[in-house]
Write a structure and sequence with these properties.
The chain is of the alpha+beta class and about 850 residues long. The protein has 20 helices and 41 strands. GO terms for molecular function: DNA topoisomerase type II (double strand cut, ATP-hydrolyzing) activity.
Length: about 850
């Protein structure tokens, strides 16, 4: 083995680790992250410094971008020209920078994502703001470091009279870390800096009275201050940012106009995305999307279809497109060659400390220069006072050096003073020049005294910082562009909608609308009424109800999912309008079917929501469990495999019931679930909450099956459970192919139940005909079935104000007056209710009587004439 002292043995693992660490730090410090003091990455700093060296101030002639890039590459930045030009381009874009630092001439790209023209075609120079970033750089205010080949020197940081890091923000990805700092309003930043300058212990709350939040060059609206506060307090936060829009009304339709876009959103791609979503019908109601933007600003037009609700379409656009984005704030920057996440107060204090350092160094430089000049003037003054002797000495001296040495020796002058005397022109001997010299010297002595007093007083330094900041604020007016809404939930249409009485109609085919109840004027008995809705030939009003605009509709589907819709979000239509398909208003899955629509004005704990499944499971959950509305809906019941929801009802709780509620995660008590799901489903369970006395009124539940069986049991037999529980057995089946087809809530045994078979046979039966049983039993006969009746289709509660509507297999709708159907006992088949002509009834529903359907005023107050009669 060769012996050589220069050879070092190391493992390849250690070598790779060391090399990668060096590379990582090079990327972090030298390329990807901004300095916390001037807010610039090295490439940006080098571009601005090179432009300053080329004397490309705000008043200079524009210079080709290629020349600037070449200067930067040749002297300071040994990387690709494309990277330098891209950085130069971004510094000139008014949609990327809150205040651009490069004044570009030519095509520097657009908000549509268009790239800039080649660097040989564009020109650039500095802006007025850039001059403030570079001001006093020639006064030894910052350190200069060698460039990549030690042939030049470049600034380690710029003096930066403006808080550029927060003003224009920064983004970058390093190795293992990233930064994303949003831009801000310069006016607000300076006001915040003045607060910190005057009160070293100023709180974040005091500063945020002035710095409200980020201010993006493209405007938009920030929703919620929580993300802003998190970002300012910890250095990390998530900010919701939306486009700013307005609605224009046109005959029979609305137009959504986008005036401002979220930061860094590509307008052309956004339009393409919206058009694609509209084409695929992922968002309903959009007829056309076009771009009408010009040099005056952005105008993106989304034209809606005739029956579309602008607010609903806009909400879907916010949900599905970049009309709403989340800006993740990471206030990571470099300080003392180390990356760190800063809070807002730390960044403000760091900038003020940087300015203090710059002012001290500038003052020292000015003091030294003033003392040098005063020293020369003092020498010239001595020479003028002894001008004859000075001239004689110079004339007798054999050469320059001898004359200089003679002056230094005879008049006790320094070498610099002697040199200045020898270089002095004869014009300085005039009386006027002598007076100027004395005045200049007097002024310098005052300046020296002032500069020395500044270095001795921190208060004076802070006053200089304050004056400079106010001067910057006066030069660069920067009103806020981005609106900030206090709370994300504050933008709620409910605050803008009056809580009026509405009539909501829902047709069998799922068309829904609302009409102000004042359009249905109260009429005297015998009036013809007014048409309430125009339906398709195979459709009818299945249900309607009066409610307030702020009430909630709950839609329960066969998959056990529950959705909400505020009444004011239902399209308002005329009395004769067909309405809008409900599937366009809530986020139903493709294979989901609405089984029940339940209105409620509140989510009071004295009410419950009862669910009934095809396999006989019943569950009751307190209505208050569903008060937290989500647009995507919630799971209402845990369904077994091959089971589905049949219907759901709101029921009033018995007095004194225990209300069970879910925990914070929406899951109920685990031990309760186990006891419920392991219960002997075939048995007749005992009453959990106690059997009411015979003279005590009790609410009851009726469940009916396809094979004509039913159970009627007291409501308190169903214990209240958490929202996502499975439920308990409501009925057991005698036949394997049996299933639940309907349910009813009975408050009195005097109520009547209408049962209908699939071959049109039906009957009315009073509730007391059905024997009270226990939950989970096989029940009693609800309707005697035979070949003439077919299977039982369902049951509805008899109401004198309602008709029965039956739907046949061919889609035929048959209306029957409920009062015309004969009463019959429980264990009977009934009479012909619907003439099906060889078809079958597939579903039944109650609907308003024709006269009621037209006037829709039977729930209103009686007229004075009616009262008297």
């Amino acid at each position: 083995m060769l012996e050589n002292s220069d050879i070092q043995i190391t493992s390849i693992e250690d070598s790779i680790k060391a090399s990668y660490l060096d590379y990582s730090m090079s990327v972090i410090i030298g390329r990807a992250l901004p300095d916390a003091r001037d807010g610039l990455k090295p490439v940006h700093r080098r571009i601005l410094h090179a432009m300053n060296e080329m004397h490309l101030g705000k008043s200079a002639k524009y210079k080709k971008s290629a020349a600037i890039v070449g200067e930067v590459l040749g002297k300071y930045h040994p990387h690709g020209d494309t990277a330098v030009y891209d950085a130069l381009v971004r510094l000139a874009q008014d949609f990327s920078m809150r205040i651009p630092v490069v004044d570009g001439q030519g095509n520097f790209g657009s908000i549509d994502g268009d790239g800039a023209a080649a660097m040989r075609y564009t020109e650039a120079r500095m802006t007025a703001l850039t001059e403030e970033l570079l001001k006093d750089i020639d006064k030894d205010t910052v350190d200069f470091i060698p460039n990549y080949d030690d042939s030049q020197s470049e600034p380690d940081v710029l003096p930066a009279r403006v808080p550029h890091l927060l003003l224009n923000g920064s983004s970058g990805i390093a190795v293992g870390m990233a930064t994303n700092i949003p831009p801000h309003s310069l006016d607000e930043l300076i006001d915040g800096l003045l607060v910190v300058l005057e009160d070293k212990e100023a709180s974040l709350e005091a500063v945020m009275e002035h710095i409200k939040g980020p201010d993006f060059p493209t405007g938009g609206t920030i929703f919620g201050k929580k993300g802003i506060i998190d970002a300012y307090r910890t250095g990390r936060g998530r900010i919701k940012l939306r486009a700013k829009t307005h609605i224009e009304k046109k005959p029979n339709k609305d137009v959504i106009v986008v005036d401002e876009l979220p930061y860094q959103v590509n307008k052309a791609k956004l339009i393409e995305t919206i058009a694609e979503l509209a084409k695929e019908k992922s968002i309903e109601g959009i007829a056309e999307v076009r771009d009408e933007s010009d040099r005056e600003g952005i105008r993106m037009v989304i034209e809606l279809k005739r029956d579309a609700m602008s607010e609903i379409v806009l909400n879907n656009l916010y949900k599905s497109t970049q009309l709403e984005i989340t800006f993740g704030v990471i206030m990571l920057a470099i300080n003392n060659k180390e990356p760190k996440i800063f809070t807002l107060l730390e960044l403000l204090k760091l900038f003020l400390h940087h300015r203090k350092t710059v002012i001290i160094r500038r003052t020292i430089y000015d003091l030294q220069e003033a003392k040098k000049r005063a020293h020369i003037l003092e020498g010239l003054k001595i020479a003028l006072d002894n001008i004859d002797e000075v001239i004689a000495l110079i004339r007798t001296s054999p050469d320059y050096d001898s004359a200089k040495a003679g002056l230094m020796s005879k008049f006790a002058l320094s070498e610099a003073q002697s040199k200045a005397i020898l270089d002095m022109r004869l014009s300085k001997l005039t009386g006027l020049e002598r007076e100027k010299l004395e005045a200049e010297l007097d002024g310098l002595m005052k300046l020296i005294a002032e500069l020395e007093s500044i270095l001795k007083s921190e208060e004076k330094i802070e006053n200089i910082i304050k004056d400079e900041l106010l001067d910057i604020k006066d030069k660069f007016k920067c009103p806020r562009k981005t609106e900030i809404v206090d709370d994300y939930d504050d933008i709620d249409i409910e605050d803008l909608v009056p809580n009026e009485n509405m009539v909501v109609t829902i047709t069998h085919r799922g068309y829904i609308k609302r009409v102000p109840s004042k359009q249905y004027e109260k009429q005297a008995r015998g009036g013809k009424g007014k048409v309430a809705v125009t339906t398709y030939d195979d459709d009818f009003i299945e249900s309607f109800f009066t409610c307030m605009s702020h009430d909630t509709l709950m839609f329960v589907t066969d998959k056990g999912q529950l959705y909400w819709l505020k009444v004011y979000k239902i399209p308002e239509g005329s009395r004769t309008a067909k309405g809008k398909a409900v599937v366009n208003l809530i986020s139903l899955q493709d294979d989901e079917k609405i089984m029940a629509i339940i209105p409620t004005s509140d989510f009071a704990p004295n009410k419950s929501l009862a669910f009934f499944t095809k396999n006989g499971i019943v569950k009751r959950t307190n209505l208050s469990e569903y008060k937290n509305i989500r647009s995507i809906g919630v799971r209402a019941i845990k369904l077994d495999e091959n089971d589905e929801l049949v219907t759901a009802l709101i029921v009033e709780n018995e007095e004194g019931e225990i209300v069970l509620s879910s925990n914070i995660d929406g899951e109920e008590n685990a031990s309760l679930d186990i006891s419920l799901e392991n219960e002997d489903l075939g048995a007749e369970p005992s009453d959990v909450l106690g059997e009411p006395s015979s003279d005590e009124p009790s609410k009851m539940i009726l469940i009916v099956t396809r094979k004509g069986m039913c159970v009627k049991f007291r409501l308190n037999k169903i214990r209240q459970m958490g929202r996502v529980s499975r439920g308990v057995k409501g009925i057991s089946f005698k036949e394997k192919n049996d299933s639940v087809v309907g349910a009813a809530f009975i408050e009195s045994n005097d109520q009547e139940i209408l049962s209908v078979g699939e071959l049109g046979i039906g009957k009315r039966t009073t509730a007391d005909e059905y024997r009270l049983t226990n939950r989970g039993g096989k029940g009693v006969i609800c309707m005697k079935l035979n070949d003439k009746t077919g299977d039982l289709i369902g049951v509805v509660m008899v109401d004198e104000r309602m008709d029965l509507m039956a739907l046949t297999t061919s889609g035929k709708m048959i209306r029957v007056d409920m009062q015309s159907i004969r009463k019959a006992g429980r264990n009977t088949s009934g009479v012909k209710v619907v003439n099906v002509d060889g078809e079958k009834v597939v579903s039944i529903a109650s609907c308003p009587k024709e006269s009621e359907e037209e006037s829709l005023d039977f729930d209103g107050p009686a007229s004075e004439q009616d009262t008297q009669e």
